What does this fold into?
Amino acid sequence: MRSLRFYLCFLALYASISFPTKCFGNICLPKDHVAFFIFGDSIVDVGNNNYITTNLQANFLPYGETFFQYPTGRASNGRLIPDFIAEKANLPLIQPYLYPGYDQYIDGANFASIGAGVLAETRRGLVIDLNTQLNYFKNMETLLKHKLGEEEAKTLLDKAVYLICIGNNDYFVPFTTNSSVLKSYSPEKYVDMVIGNLTTAIKEIYKKGGRKYVFLGLPPLGCVPYIKAQIPGNTGACMEELTTLVKLHNKELSKVLPKLESQLKGFKYSLADFYSFCTERINSPSKYGFTEGKISCCGSGSYRGIPSCGERSNEYELCEKVSDFLFFDSVHPTEKAYQQFAELIWSGTPNITGPYNLKALFEH
Ligand SMILES: *[C@@H]1O[C@H](CO)[C@@H](O)[C@H](O)[C@H]1NC(C)=O
Ligand SMILES: *[C@@H]1O[C@H](CO)[C@@H](O)[C@H](O)[C@H]1NC(C)=O
Ligand SMILES: *[C@@H]1O[C@H](CO)[C@@H](O)[C@H](O)[C@H]1NC(C)=O
It folds into this structure.
């Protein structure tokens, strides 16, 4: 007992020498602490939708089973990109903002919501849209100021990294529901609206101190099992109309970010090429350690593209070996795919993420 106490005391002394900290009441932060905030959709939601009234959820098995052994609200079999990035950045898993009783925010918070889009019209009433995610972020800022004081809260938000993965649903919804918003615009005008609203949101975060951003480009949505299963004749083709929109969005995003960099002092970003990452694995799964890149692990129908995965329906099939698959359900990649992507963008070269990689954003 005594030696343990001596050891702990020594450890504490050692820790305080090698990792200088700053304390506010009972909260102590290492001097080089970098928080991590996440905005977006099901690619990055770690459980916010568990706490809203919606049918857009993943809080039932087999979601979560591979890593957590229980459903967490993550729309995959295990961890998502932000979980792997947090680990690389020596942070704990970043909690959903709506997690009851969660008010630490020192390490960050996750505001993402399954089904959410940039536009308020996208699944209105069923999701936490981007604007509401921003309002939650602003509420959190107020709380942080109370806790840490004005100046330290500002420093924390200045040094933090902001991951934004949104837009998928703005393009997906018009092809999967009877929503007519897209139909009244040309593809160019619609993409302009999405990118325009996204730009407004980035500027809001910038105003609150945000300087370092990670953007995930959109994946090949026209080729996910859900969409392929809807193509008449079951030819294996992707949906070209959707592919065109996604490519247009990615192109516009890659143009608007350098503009923001030149307009906003200190703005730094990493734009990650999720599109090529997924396309390469859909076409050549075996090159990347998968055996199946086109059929999902969990669902029903052609390509298991009918989104029936989970215990709410007993009419779904579940694959035997999830690590063989690129897609877990009709839309979402597996934990293994997310892990590969997180590793690539963490230390990646500009052909997968640039101008900065994530390691550089967290360390400088
Ligand atoms: C769209 O509307 C038509 C006719 O009202 C209906 O038959 C169809 O099921 C709807 N599709 C979706 C995806 O909601
Ligand atoms: C934002 O989206 C709305 C539709 O939700 C649209 O009317 C508006 O023009 C968009 N704003 C920008 C700056 O593009
Ligand atoms: C990216 O560049 C690296 C090193 O320059 C190379 O090894 C890798 O194959 C490239 N990846 C792609 C997807 O082009």
Remarks:
- Residues 177-178 surround 2-acetamido-2-deoxy-beta-D-glucopyranose (ligand 1) (CB under 6 Å).
